[in-house]
Amino acid sequence: MDGRDSHLSERLQTGFLGVIAFGLILFLLVQARFILICLVLAIIIFSLTSDAISAFARLKVPNWLATTLALIAIAVGLLWAATALVAQVNEVVSTSIVYADRAQAALARLSQRWGPNVQEAIGTFMASIDFAGWIRSAAAQASNLISGSVLILTFVGFMFSERIWFPIKIERLTGDPDQARQVLETVHKIMRRVNRYLVVKAAISAVTAGLIWTIFRVQGLELAGAVAMLTFILNFIPTLGSIAATVITIAMVLAQTGDPTVTLTVGGLTVAVQFIIGNVFDPMLLGQTLRLSSFGIVLSLAFWGVVWGIAGTFLAVPIMVAIMIVCAQIPWLRPVAIMLSQEGLPEQEPASGLRR
């Protein structure tokens, strides 16, 4: 009995320490989320750029020249994306103020068909929503992109400066060449799969955004560029992003025109685009790339959305890929990797894709 009690006490103590460690990690994730989000984005950009540098190296381009060109391209790209997004948000804010009254009047006309009770309920609901607060919050979040871009660029620059020493550090840290090789292979596997996902997802999102932009231009609507950029960004959030983009698009059309016919036409075309791409091309192109459990993706979205907000929903899938591959290499965490994988085969690589 003493042996059993001792074993049970040891397990309880281990579990208690695990709960405390998880709580501390969660606390640090929340408190340092701005820095950690920038660090994760810097790692992703570094990973994507490393593939490009490796491709240049195969073309006999000097490593220092490829690295310098990559850093310049990253700096220009980050600053351009941040300023463009801030400009689009400011345009949406200024235009929303102009169209706010028109949108409320159009919604009131639509609700008249459903009777006074429904009309009163919709009016009460709309009055309870702080649209001005949401718009100010979006503008404030967008303004943080500039400072975040500078921090990300700093992280990426130092990562490139340490790039050639990373394998040596891993070997000296592990003290075993075979174990160091396994660690590096795990890192490369994570980078390959995340890069493959981001490239394919960017292409799908770009096509979707282009179609939405075309619909807006054909209908003669304003904010075509802003809606297209918003669609492109939100489509990186699995499932929920396309729904949010569709709702926002329909709301923008209603606010601009106040015409139910135009709103239904554009809304129907938007839903058709999102449905066809999201249910046909997206699974076909990304299914073999991710090999992640759909339920696991939903859990990852919920967890990282609570911890890191909107940025967490964008990073949920890459983080989940990394966690699954790492857990697959650790025997006592392998059940977690199996549960996170789609077919219970976390180590299996997709048949085709980017290669280092």
TrEMBL record:
Q: Which key words tag this protein in UniProt?
A: Membrane, Transmembrane, Transmembrane helix
Please state what the protein is called: AI-2E family transporter
Stated family: Belongs to the autoinducer-2 exporter (AI-2E) (TC 2.A.86) family.
Q: How does it sit in the membrane?
A: Multi-pass membrane protein
**Could you tell me where this protein is found in the cell?**
Membrane
A GO CC term attached to the entry: membrane
Pfam families attached to this UniProt entry: AI-2E_transport
**The organism sits in which domain of life?**
Bacteria
Biological source species? Paracoccus denitrificans (strain Pd 1222)
Membrane-crossing ranges are 12-28, 34-57, 64-87, 138-160, 198-216, 228-255, 262-281, 301-326
Coarsely, its chief localization is membrane
Biological processes annotated in GO: transmembrane transport
